[in-house]
Amino acid sequence: MQMKRNTAPCVRNCCLDEHDICLGCGRSLEQILNWSEVDQAQRQLWLDEAAERRQKRRLSI
After folding, report:
1. Which terminal CB of the chain, N or C, has fewer other CB atoms within 10 Å?
2. pTM value?
């Protein structure tokens, strides 16, 4: 999932699960809080992790 340089992947459906993972975007609370502090390469890694989490969640429903 490629994002514009300064755009956060927030989908305005913020609700954390029991592991502090957002049910909307799939990022961890730590990733959400630190998004503006990291470089584009780190953001891309987090986006990839978030996409995997969302996919796993869809498969488990």
Report:
1. C
2. 0.81
